[in-house]
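Repro:
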Amino acid sequence: MKRRLFLKSAMAGSAVATAVGAGLLTPSMVFANSAAFKATSAAASTAVAGAGKGSFKFKAPKIAENGAVVPMTVDASKMDGVTN
């Protein structure tokens, strides 16, 4: 069982190393926008993300039967450059 974990980790590591070496993963693409995570209100976070009011919709059940698994959908088709 440990052999499978080692092989999976080695393959994932080599894939990331290859992507970094090829220039596919640059810091600007990999790191998240820190200003969006430091926002203190919903309006500020959507402004930093470049989304206006009504740009995306969350759909979730009013009562979750199982707190471990809550089905949610996000519709962001009204944002520029986003497809479902």
